[in-house]
Structure formats: structure tokens, C-alpha cells
Amino acid sequence: MRNETIFLKDYTPPAYLIDDVHLTFKLDPTKTRVLSRIAFHPNPETTDRDFFLHGEQLSLISATVDGKACRPEIADEGLIIAVPDAPFIFEAEVEISPSTNTALEGLYMSNGMYCTQCEAEGFRKITYYPDRPDVMTTFTVRVEGDLPVLLSNGNPAASGDGWAEWHDPWPKPSYLFALVAGDLVAHPDSFNTMSGKQVELNIYVRPGDEHKCAFGMEALKRSMVWDEQIYGREYDLDIFNIVAVDDFNMGAMENKGLNIFNSSAVLASPETSTDTNFERIEAIIAHEYFHNWTGNRITCRDWFQLCLKEGLTVFRDQQFTGDMRSHAVKRINDVLALRGRQFREDNGPLAHPVRPDSFVEINNFYTATVYEKGAEVIGMLKRLVGDADYAKALDLYFERHDGDAATIEDWLKVFEDTTGRDLDQFKRWYEQAGTPRLTVTDHFDNGTYTLHLKQETPPTPGQPKKDPRVIPVAVGLLNPNGDEVVETTILEMTEAEQSFEFKGLAARPVPSILRGFSAPVILQRDTTNAERAFLLAHDTDPFNKWEAGRALGKDTLSRMVTNGTPPDNAYLDALMAVLRDDTLDPAFRALALSLPGQDDIAQTLFDAGLTPDPDKIYRASQTLKQTLAQHLQDLLPKIYAEMHVPGPYSPDAEAAGNRALQGAALSLLSRLDGGSAASRQYESADNMTQQLGALSCLLTIEKGEAELAAFRTQWGQDRLVMDKWFGLQVTYAAPERAAATADRLTKDPEFDLINPNRFRAVFGALAMNAAGFHDPTGTSYNLVADWLIRLDALNPQTTARLSTAFETWRRYDGDRQSLIRDALERIQSTPGLSRDTSEMVGRILN
Ligand code: ZN
């Protein structure tokens, strides 16, 4: 097994390129034959003529060069043969075993259906091939198998009994290859593109899931229209297929013309899916569809450039969701996710640049930093150049690089050529890891208000020193009476320290800094709770209005944890005012009411030089919720009733917003009424949002035993709903019972180690139950380690991903640290540990 580090600086172009490839699959669960015919020619751009094909876990049956049998040298990771310094045809036949492939990478089986996952380096488990994204070609694929549906990329070419041929006219790298075969049913539709071409659309599912396709199909059509209208991008094949697969490591995959989805990321119905599920499904469908241009037509030269397609495509799907729903609410949710996952990563041992410069296993770099911070970097670029130049730059990007395997340098050059700006310093956002701290002080003198900004980024692994970055700081100023005196302006910070002046002001203003969260930084400013409450009441920027309430919440909770100070009435009153203000969007009010998470408080305390105690944080948030419930006592039943949405369920943003606020009210109310309102809601609910919402409220107050049993009886046959049943119990378990609950669930007959959704439902939830995971006895640490060791032998990718549960370990006290170290070392010393997990655990320990 390869275990060495690969560096960006070592990139060399491929020695041979491909004119076209023909593949034939003779499907069989344990003995699938893959025949390949690949037309190679020497790459004129290089004199390197070393011929190497990647290949792993393949049995080579035969190989020929220009029709002559050859005996290749089989290495651990591929195959070497002598080939001419001229065009030639390579043919091979290999045998693979999809049914025993539990890693879910390459060709594998899920519930009797064949499917593939090739990104990043899975194609080499299908056949011998230059499995790197800068080798692009057209694919013709023949699939033979006794199954009703046989699919691959591109357009259907021909078919007969037990076989089908597909041809993809667009050159693509191997990671975008896909094949699906099984007993599937289609939910069909069609779409007329802006130039009048008709595209056939299908969502393929297992029989029985047909009723869960309609929402995904509508979301797909909305995405297709949006990409035409906003980016001028039209779809480019006769057919677009989506397939739902139960066993899948990630959310979904943008294979050309044949997107493969984790069934949790596409299947939806009112009875089985929550509002949050619907919104996520819409976003993932859009994301994968948008990859057709940002990812497929323009792909990445190498895997270090992953953010080129992922950061941009996340940015595009965020814009889309904002346009479909609410920009303010979407921005708040995105920042919550960014802080919860990316800041956590950026402030720990796994910190890495948006464009990493080295890796051992690329699958370990499908991270919040590459995806979410990658999207933030694009948002900053757009803020700096303005909307019009952003649009021009994107047009140039598509025009100049269509058909290319491109780099971040190519991307930035397009912006430089469009705007005349020098983006050398901006590029540091791609190269330097770590979250900048932006410290702000101010003074007012004689009508002039000065903001003094200072930036500093703490050291991260391999990067002790950081250079100042370009930071777009969006600022507005408010008068003491609440009026806005200076509208949002972008301060372009480029120095380590810099001052900005606002002249001609009648009175000292209240600043609203980093509006819309204009840069992914941690803002540090000594301010008063009175000022925060003022901004919560008056800020015209919805993000900063919410942020002010959040800051109040953080300050309140931090003081409760560190000095036992009771919650400040000013904070409670401010929340009451927001809750009462019916000019505010209910979804926004629900977000304002949600308290900072326990992991967030732990990081805040750690940043302040303290050692967070997860138990104390847990107890303080319980106390705060109880106090808040009492404070809002009179208002809660009223809000709960007002937010009732009449009529049949609809997942639209407005109805979902009402239900979100209703749910927030119910959760506080349950702390006062012993759960009677929640029990009633559980009984009468006709949709999963309210059914699950009610059950969560009951579990939080340690009730709901009967409902939990009824839920299981009702939903025992639905895998996706059963994932919720598993997850819920761990999520809402009291800290001292979290590990035991997870342990009990692993003994349930429905627990399934092979299915990543089920495994994550239990262990992802345990990792997120902060006080439960950090139980001082170390039971959770040990349980998670035991199960990661077991899973690693079957599915390295999902194991490695879940090992991030331990990434925050250095925040905690010595006892916890040594328990975690033991658990990590135990994982690390497991014989045969995968490259994926060993890289992750190694980085976490260092
Ligand atoms: Zn993506």
C-alpha cells in the first residue's frame, strides 16, 4: 500500500494522451469482466515517455498493444509496459468482484444493483487506465447484464435484450465515468433548453420509491432554468439521469449525464422528509447539476485544484438556494455551517489550505475547507470586483477554458484579465490555512469616526508564519437613534494593520462590521451587550442583526460557564422583542432564537485561553433554555398557534419558516408543560417535520418512550426514516447515557455497518453530542475507536471521515487528552489500517 506524500510542486503532464476509449462490461456479482480498448498517443507537450496505467484490486486476464499479446509488469498500484513512441491501441480484459466491494469505491453493489463511484481515484479499481483528471477523452460503453436498466454516461447509442450501449461525446476524465445496472424504475420528465433542445430527464429508484421523486425532479428543472438565466449555461446532452443509491459514501456525484445520489440526498416525501431534508435535497441536486459546467466541461488539472470545481459549485448552489428561498436565512445557515465545521477544522490539527499543497490520500481532502471556505473565497472575489465584473469574468472563464483541465492560476487570471487587478495577494486565501482574527478598535473625534483593523492568523500545521491577506470588510454605520448614516461600504484591507476614516458625522455612530459575513474571519472587538442589543434591534443588515443576537448568546453562555453568572435580562428581553416582531420573517426569528451550540462555546472558551468543560457547557445551555422558556412563557403558546400552517403540507420556504418558528416555540414550551403540546403534535402530525420535531422535544425532556416505539413500528420499512430513528436517540441522549445508547443501537438488528448512512446516524450523532462524546470516563472515545477499527477494514473513506470526531482534542483537559490519545493510538496501531484512516489519525495526533 502506497503511503507516501504527493506534492503539488511535483506535478508533471501525462506522457500519453487518449483519443478515445471503448469499454465493455459483462456484469456478474463476483466475476465482472471489463474489456477496454484505449487509443493512446504521445503527449506532444512533454518528452516523458514512461507509460504507466493505474490499477488496483484487478485480476488481469489479458493485455495487448496494437493487437500483440504483451506481459505487463504488474506493480502494487498499476501496470508498466513497453509501448511505442507513436500512437497505439492498448486492449485489456480484467476481472473484478463488485459484490464484495464494501469500500463503495469503483464498481460495487447496493441492494442488488450495480453502481459506481469513481471520484477521486476509483476508476483504477475498474480497469487499467491513466486515472488522473488531466487525461480526458470520449467514452463508448457497452453494458451487458440480465437486468432491466443498464445505464452509463452520455447519450444512449443502441440497446437490445440484455445489453445497452452509451456514447458520451464530451471528453471527460475517468473520475466522471459511471455505470448503473439494476431493477429500477424511472420517474420521467423532460426539459426544453434555452436554445430549444429537448432533454429527457429521469430519476431512477428502486421499485417502491417512485412516490419520492417528484420534488427532486422539480428541483432539477429549477436548477436547469437558473443556470441558463444566471450563468448562461445550457445543458449539453439529450438525456440527464439521476440514480438513487442506498449505500453511498458521500452526498452525490456529478458523473457526466448520470448523476449518482445517496438516496438521502434525492428521495423526498412530506411524510418521510423534514423541511431541512427538502432544502438540502434541492441544494444537492442543484450542486451536482451545476457541476456539468463547473467541474465537467471545465475540470481540474490535478486533485490539488479540487476547490476550482467544488468551491465554485458550492458558491453557485448557495446563490441558487438564496434565489429560491431567502438570501438572509441562507446566509445565516451557511455561516453556521462554516463556523461549525470549517472553523473547527481550520483551528485544529487538520487545518489545510483551500488548495492543499500535499496529500497522502486525496479522499481526505473533500473537506469543509475545500468546499465551504472555497466558496467563501469566491464570494470575497465577487465582493471585491463587483457583480458586473464577476459576471464578465465567469463568461471569460467558460469561453477560455471549456474543455480544459484547469488550475487556480487559470481561474485567477480570468479575473485579472477582466478587471486589471493584481490578485497575487488575494491568492493567499488559497495558499494559507487558518482563520484570520480581525481585531477592531474605533474612535470618534470631531465628526470623524476611525476604525482601526488588525489581522492575524494563528500558525497551522506546516505554516508557522502568515502574510496579511486581502480582506473585504463590509461596514455600515448607525446613528444612536437607530438610523443608518453610512450604508454598507466595502473596506478593502490589505495590510496587517490599517485604519479607515468616516468624516462629517454628527454623533459617534454604532458600527455594523463584517456585514453579510463579508469574509471568513473571526471578528474580535470589545463591545458591550447594550450595543449588541442595539444592533439586534436596529441593524439593517439581516446577517449582522442575527449575529448581534448570536454574540449576546455566546457572551451569556460563556459567562454562565466560567463564572456561573445568571443569564442577563437584557439578552432575554432582546430575544423576546425579536420573537414578538411579526415584521420579521419567521425563519429568521427561529434562527435568532436558536442558541449557540456547545462545540461553538467550547471553541470560544479555548480561544480565550480557557479549558472548556463539556459538562459545564451542557448544563449551562440547559439552564439557559429553561430560563428562556420561563421568560417567554406567555408568548410561546401564542407563537405556537400563530405559526400553524393550514392545509396540506408544502415544503416551500414560507411554510417551512413558519414550521421552524413553531418548532422552536414548541421546544421551549415542552420545558414548561411536561411535553403535553409535543405529544399532541406527535399524534396529529401529517408530515415528518412535525412528527420528528415533536419527538425531539419529548426526548429532550427525557420522555417520548412510547412515541419512539410507535415511530419504529410505523417506519420500520423505510431505511431513510429509520436513520432518523437511530440518530435521534443518540442526539438527544443525556450525556451520561449517550455512549450506552449508541452501544445499544449497534446491537439492533437494523444496525448495518456496511451502510454509511446508518453508521453515521449512530456515530456521527455520538460525535456531535458534545458532552456525551466527551464523557469524562472515556466510554464514548473507546466505543467510537472500537467501531472505527471495525469499519476501517470494510470502508476506509467513511472511517477516515468520522475520525474527525477527535480533531478538537487539544482543547480539553489533560485527562481527556490522554484518554483520546490512547483511543487514537489504538486505532493507529491496528494492523492493516487503511491509508485513509492512518493519514487522518496521524495528522490528528501530531
Ligand atoms: Zn461538488
Automatic annotation (TrEMBL):
The organism sits in which domain of life? Bacteria
> What catalytic activity does the UniProt entry give for this protein?
Release of an N-terminal amino acid, Xaa-|-Yaa- from a peptide, amide or arylamide. Xaa is preferably Ala, but may be most amino acids including Pro (slow action). When a terminal hydrophobic residue is followed by a prolyl residue, the two may be released as an intact Xaa-Pro dipeptide
Q: Which residues form the Peptidase M1 alanyl aminopeptidase Ig-like fold domain?
A: 434-525
Provide the organism lineage as a comma list.
Bacteria, Pseudomonadati, Pseudomonadota, Alphaproteobacteria, Rhodobacterales
> What's this protein's name?
Aminopeptidase N
Cite a single GO MF annotation.
alanyl aminopeptidase activity
Species per Swiss-Prot/TrEMBL record: Pseudohalocynthiibacter aestuariivivens
E.C. number: 3.4.11.2
Q: Where is the Peptidase M1 alanyl aminopeptidase C-terminal domain?
A: 530-846
Does NADP count among this protein's keywords? no
Q: Which family does it belong to?
A: Belongs to the peptidase M1 family.
Enzyme class of the recorded protein, top EC level? hydrolase
